Amino acid sequence: MSQSLQPQSSQKKHPMHNVERMTPEEIRDALKRLVGGVFDPKTLFRELSSLLPQYLKPDTDQKTKDKIKEKIIQAVSIIGLETHYPLAETTCPTYQPLIIEFSNLLIQEYGCTTAGERALAEITAGAYVRVLECSRALHERLNPTYLSHEGNGYFASLSKELDRAERHFTTALTMLKRLKCPELDIQVKTQTAFIAQNQQNVASTDQFTNALQ
């Protein structure tokens, strides 16, 4: 009897009515944390802070070491602009020490401090090593035991790749020099300026007016 006297709501509430709504900006930030956190270098370093001592223990089983080693390889790539290890993986073992040393020499020579400058130094070193690799491969094909259509095509491809590597090296090195070259501030205080590049005579306004008269 008492239950029948209680008022009943005519509308049923949705089971998710208490969930707080999120703004588009909050959704964007939440997705960044969910997705980016997996590959965030800070997250990886936090994991290695506890995993690396475990990896160094002699009683750790090999399966666990293999899983930790994958994390270590990912962490090594993070400091690639400092160690040049990812760059060294792009060439054969013969030139790996050279490509690292040449990158360090370019960074030291041009005073590369920013990430972009260091990356450009790596590109320059990588192009230089490709020149050496193509030159070595061409040298091995200079005296073939026999001639064939496939061999001639391979020789032509090597020649084009060598030219391309030389252009990449020259372009990257020139760009690196321009980035580190200070800008020139030239002030010309004269009535007439001679521009050597275009061989033009730039006169003052008064002289130009008098010439027309």
Report on the architecture of this protein.
The chain is mainly alpha-helical. Among the domains are: 36-78; 85-180. Helix content is 67%, strand content 3%. The chain is built from ten helices and two strands. It has helices spanning 2-5, 24-39, 41-56, 62-78, 80-83, 85-88, 96-110, 115-140, 149-180, 205-212, and strands spanning 193-195, 200-202. The protein has a two-stranded antiparallel sheet with strand order 1-2. α3 packs antiparallel against α4 and α7 crosses α8 (115-140).
Low-confidence stretches: 14-19, 198-205
Please give the alpha-carbon distance between the first and last residues. 116 Å
Largest sheet data: 2 strands, antiparallel
Task: Write the H/E string, N to C.
Answer: HHHHHHHHHEEH
Rg, Å, rounded:
33 Å
- What form results from the Cα inertia axes? extended
Write out the strand line-up for the largest beta sheet, numbering strands in chain order: 1-2
Count of β-strands: 2
Mean pLDDT across residues:
79
What portion of residues is helical? 55-70%
Structural class by secondary-structure content:
mainly alpha
Strand content range: under 5%
**Helix run count:** 10
Task: Furnish the topology, listing elements before pairings.
Elements: H1 2-5, H2 24-39, H3 41-56, H4 62-78, H5 80-83, H6 85-88, H7 96-110, H8 115-140, H9 149-180, E1 193-195, E2 200-202, H10 205-212
Antiparallel strand pairs: 1-2
Short description:
The chain is mostly helical. It has helices at residues 2-5, 24-39, 41-56, 62-78, 80-83, 85-88, 96-110, 115-140, 149-180, 205-212, and strands at residues 193-195, 200-202. The protein has a two-stranded antiparallel sheet.
